[in-house]
């Protein structure tokens, strides 16, 4: 049976309030820990939101132009 990925896979939260500039990955994509998954614009800076663990992107909750709050789930990694 498939076990969940070790080490913090799950929801990837926004590190701060801002606007989604770009979602870099697509649903079903394989990502490695540290890979950029979303680019967030906050206070005229662009921040790479990275995967907290390796796994497969199982859901994306945001799109370019969306306003997000700190801690809001951007996507999930399974």
Describe the structure.
- The chain has 78 residues and is mainly β.
- The protein has one domain (11-77): OB fold (Dihydrolipoamide Acetyltransferase, E2P) (Beta Barrel), CATH 2.40.50.100.
- 0% of the residues lie in helices and 47% in strands.
- The protein is built from no helices and 8 strands.
- The strands form 2 sheets. A 4-stranded antiparallel β-sheet has the order 1-8-6-3, with no helix packed on it. Strands 5-4-2-7 form a 4-stranded antiparallel β-sheet, with no helix packed on it.
- A hairpin with a 2-residue loop joins β4 and β5.
- The radius of gyration is 12 Å and the shape is globular.
Q: Main sheet? A: 4 strands, antiparallel
- CATH hierarchy, class: Mainly Beta
Oligomer: single chain
Structural class: mainly beta
Which topology does CATH recognise?
OB fold (Dihydrolipoamide Acetyltransferase, E2P)
Give the overall form.
Answer: globular
Into how many domains do the coordinates divide?
A: 1
Keywords: Biotin
Domain Lipoyl-binding: 3-78
Protein name: Biotin-requiring enzyme
Organism: Alkalispirochaeta americana
Q: Can I get a quick summary?
A:
Keywords: Biotin. By secondary structure, the protein is mostly beta strands. It has one domain: OB fold (Dihydrolipoamide Acetyltransferase, E2P) (Beta Barrel), CATH 2.40.50.
Salient structural properties:
biotin; Biotin-requiring enzyme; 78 residues; globular; OB fold (Dihydrolipoamide Acetyltransferase, E2P); 0% helix; mainly beta; Biotin_lipoyl
